Amino acid sequence: MKTIEIIENENRSIITQLNEYIEGTIEKANGEEVLVFKNELGRGSIRNIRFDWGIALLDYDVTFNHNVKIIFSVDNGKNPIEFIFISEGRISYGNSKENELTKLERFQNIIVGSGSKTKRIYYFPNNERVRLNIIHVFAEEFMQKSNNNVDTIGNNLLAVFKGEEEKLPFKHIGNYNLKIADKIKVLNELKGSGIVKNLSIEGQLNLILAIQILEHENFENETPLPHSLSVSDIKKIHSLTDFIIDNISKTITIETLVKESGLSTKKLQAGFKLLYSNSINSYIRKLKLELARDLLKTSDMNISEIVYAIGYKSRSYFSKIFFEYYDILPINYRDQLKSSKLKN
User: Fold this and answer.
1) Statement to judge: residues 206 and 260 lie in one domain
2) Judging by DSSP bridges, how do beta strands 108-113 and 32-38 pair with one another?
3) In this predicted structure, what is the pLDDT of residue 224?
4) What confidence score (pLDDT) does residue 331 get?
5) Which residue stretches of the chain are H helix?
6) Confidence of residue 49 (pLDDT cuts 50, 70, 90)
7) What was the pLDDT predicted at 46?
8) What range defines the domain where residue 296 resides?
């Protein structure tokens, strides 16, 4: 495992210290520092940008060739509160005061606060793309901002903002939130330069922070946001994939899945979009077509039998959507397979 140790202070930037281990190139523009690399360690980019009133952004779009551990500590002062969101991949998180690692999953709302002498540790898996956004809030500086309204935050998170060491370390592993995912996507795709880009990034960060804080408060009050999915919701949606495969020869409707899972239509649609980047109907059609392709390849069933086996009634409709998905008609695909076998 590759270990990287960063000491946050005013004299040396995070990006400069990261580059001592990663050995890429640093690009600076409009207050941003971006480390770009493609070498034996892996490939990707890491960006850091600091704003007024104690707000900063550290984001990663990286694929490491090795397991990588990045350790953060502060030289003087207190650790920032970290609002974490993973758009792609997964990581693990730990700190120097606890022995347990916490797995952080894609689209989950995460807030962590650490004591002043606590090291924060991030574990990146090898050969997996990770897109990770961390908003740092330096509470002492942030609370000097007029009209910060920090006192309206729930008690647990308020204690973290006030730096009450007896309440640290703090960890909130919340719901899966599509609204945050949408805002992060906008943040990652912002173009332009100069004041327009900086204002756009800062505005987007404030929106993301607001949603993450609201999600935390609703989580504690057990009233999740409309765009949130709980861990139990996600598990139910995962289990539906087995149900769909087991019943692939039948007509599977959204109503059937609602009854099977006990979830609402809105939660089902949101969950399939989150987990599989597809609507429910598109996901079911994809599974049916993949099974049909496998049957064409491995069985002696004729096409009409395969159409029936995957739950369709019309051979012409099946041929149409198979062609749309694979750019070849099923009969031609089977002929192509037979021809390939003869050549071998």
Assistant:
1) no
2) unpaired
3) 66
4) 92
5) 14-22, 139-142, 155-161, 178-188, 194-220, 231-246, 254-261, 265-276, 280-298, 303-309, 315-326, 330-343
6) very high
7) 97
8) 231-343
First to last CA, the chain: 44
Three-state DSSP class for 112?
strand
Q: Which two tokens stand for residue 122?
A: 């991030």
Same-domain check for residues 208 and 318: no
More confident residue, 326 or 224: 326
Cα–Cα dist 169/91, whole Å: 19
- Note the pLDDT of residue 250: 87
Location of structure tokens 């995962």: 238
Are 57 and 206 contained in the same domain? yes
Place of tokens 């999600």: 215
Residues 191 and 309 in one domain: no
DSSP string, 38-64: ESSSEEEEEEEEEETTTEEEEEEEEEE
Mean per-residue pLDDT of the chain? 89
Kindly state whether residue 226 falls inside one of the protein's structural domains: no
Residue where the block lists tokens 């890491």: 46
For residue 184, give every residue at least 6 positions away whose Cβ sits within 8 Å of its Cβ, in sequence order, or none.
85, 87, 133, 208
The listed range with the strongest mean pLDDT (138-147, 181-190, 295-304) is 295-304
- 148 and 92 share a domain? yes
Establish if 298 belongs to a structural domain: yes
CATH number of the domain residue 89 falls in: 2.60.120.10
d(CA 66, CA 337): 38
pLDDT for res 307: 93
Domain count, the chain: 2
